[in-house]
Amino acid sequence: MSLEEIIKQKIQATGAMRFRDYMEMCLYYPGLGYYHSPVTTIGKDGDYYTTPYLSSVFGQLIARQLEEMWTVMGKSSFTVVEFGAGNGLLCRDILESAKKNSEFFKKLNYCIIEKNPFFEQQQRNILPANVSWARDIFEMKGMAGCILSNELVDNFSIHQVIMQNELMEVFVDVENGCFKEILKPAHPSLVNYFNELNITLPPGFRTEVNLEAVDWIKSIASVLKKGYVITIDYGYPSTELYSDYRRTGNLVCYHRHQVNFSPYVYIGMQDITTHINFSALHHWGLKNGLCLSGYTNQAQFLLGLGMSDCFRSVSPTSCHPGFLKSWLLGLGKKMKILIQQKNTAHRGLSGLLFSERLI
Questions:
Q1: In this predicted model, what pLDDT tens digit does every residue of 6-38 receive, in sequence order?
Q2: Burial of 63 (0-12, 13-18, 19+ CB in 10 A)
Q3: Closest CA to 281 of 173, 156, 188, 181
Q4: CATH number of this structure's domain 20-153+207-352
Q5: 121: helix, coil or strand?
Q6: How far is 59 from 150, CA to CA, in rounded Å?
Q7: Which of 59, 173, 209, 275 has its CA 20 to 30 Å from the CA of residue 331?
Q8: Integer Rg of the chain from CA
Q9: Alpha-carbon gap, residue 351 to 64, rounded angstroms
Q10: What is the pTM of this model?
Q11: What is the 3-state secondary structure (H, E, C) of 310-333?
């Protein structure tokens, strides 16, 4: 039975489901969901590229930032927890670069939290034995170091809402064998989300609410005893995310490197993603003990870490330095980086040399 049939049967048996639950099934249903399938999703034969897939330069620069954080924290034991490590390339490149400083490498513990069993197997095939895996962030309670994610939060399952006379939530129903959206009054948790951020949506405004991201940052704050959180993703502060020209929402789907805006096609075979709200991560992080280190875009982050130096080591036969620089800087204007910290001295980090204001 196809995933589309499974979802329709569930709706017919139990009634219309929240869009959030529909998206969760599309992406994470065991064996059939997009992120629980053995089908290649990253690279030329997949649906999209990520920066680590193209070159090791990105991992080298992340390693520089981690090493600097380790120095700020007193050069003691330093744990990196990477959420959703994909094919493991970023981890591999970070560890290879970290070896250049033997003292840092000896103090470095690297752990991956991965929901996709097929990705985990790929990671185990290419990563060294000193990498470990955990099923849950709470296994790392009391850690000191850095929690890292790259293009993770934008794939959390989101609620879709539309402002009418009151805030309404999008549900997915089935009619004549086809998916159909219906609206129901939004749960108080969704109303509270906007109240907390002091956001008032105008009538007819459609957008997304990532409550899973709120729970995620709260969990991180409770686990991290001392150190940093680096979140790399597509997104904006609230002021940009809820500006009028985004009144139809930010949800995007990717299938075979083609963009579409319908989550009701290619069920289980396409990525469904949306821009994240960095103001929300900052807000709930601060409420749970995570202070703001800084916010910037990926291009500025990489330049601050000395990106130009890394191009000298890039082989033109594997990836032309000019193309790579164009890729990193072009993508970097869209990709944002939020760094938060806990129980750590406020010292300027190189990656935040060209920081932006986070509202």
A1: 999 999 999 999 999 999 999 999 989 998 877
A2: buried
A3: 156
A4: 3.40.50.12710
A5: helix
A6: 11
A7: 209
A8: 21
A9: 9
A10: 0.92
A11: HHHHCCCCCCCHHHHHHHHHHHHC
